[in-house]
Amino acid sequence: MPRRFEFILYALLIGSGLILSGILNRSRRAPSIPPLEQQTAPLPPRANQLQPGFHMTVPETPERSRHRVVSLGTAFAINDSGDWATARHVSRHCAALVVLDADGEHGYPVRMVVNHPRTDLSVLVTGGSFDRLAIAARDPGRRETAFFIGFPQGNPASVEASYLGSGRVDVTDGPELGGDGERIQGDFWVEDRRAPRFQGSLGGLSGGPVLDASGSVIGVAVAEEPRRGRVVSIAPRSLTELLDGAGSIGWVARNDSTNLARAIVTDANFGRYGDDLRAKSSIAEVYCYGYRSGIQPRRPRL
Asked: Does domain 1-38+56-293 bear CATH number 2.40.10.120?
């Protein structure tokens, strides 16, 4: 029986205004548009491949004169042809999006976005070739340990967490950002360790993969409940539903339940393992630049 979680969680999104500027002032990069690596290969006719309920949007090309960074998150490669999975709220309302390379000095402009119609997941399409992650063909197990990999507070870091259960929960953009709430089905985890150690919010981790001990993706990070040290992910079955609906090809699902005894991600090495994946651009930071025409910036709640 799934557990029912009634507390409110905040989407793991670093947003506009003082929150963003304050965090990025402590980050390794300024929030400017990096030199862009343009992918000249034509994209597949994705609009003709989408399943009912899935819709494609085409972001603008980032320009320094017109766009400023308003939020950031994490994405991970799901095939070797430039498709990335992330949280839907990372790409929501963005005029332009950039997936950064491993050193953060260059970026890949997002050329398509396909959102899951029923949960907090998106596919970003840049083109190019990146080392994909395999997706676990199972749900988390009781008391399982997993590893959240990404860019909390705009910096590379990893979080070890223990599985609590699944349930439906209200998620908002947080009182500082004042976004609309939604009710989602999620998997719930409690934090055990951070590598490297740091304090405060996990904002910026949204869209990052949750890895099991075999290195397979067993969820996508979407929200946190800071006072309880809890984080929420979307289950692998919703991720595979997204990739099918978005017309993504070349992704791999792996039934790895028998491989867990031969763990490659452990309590001792999860920080280094996350660093290796970021260095290969299997996991990357995403910058959202500006708001689409007609969208008002999110305002703080009173």
From this structure: yes
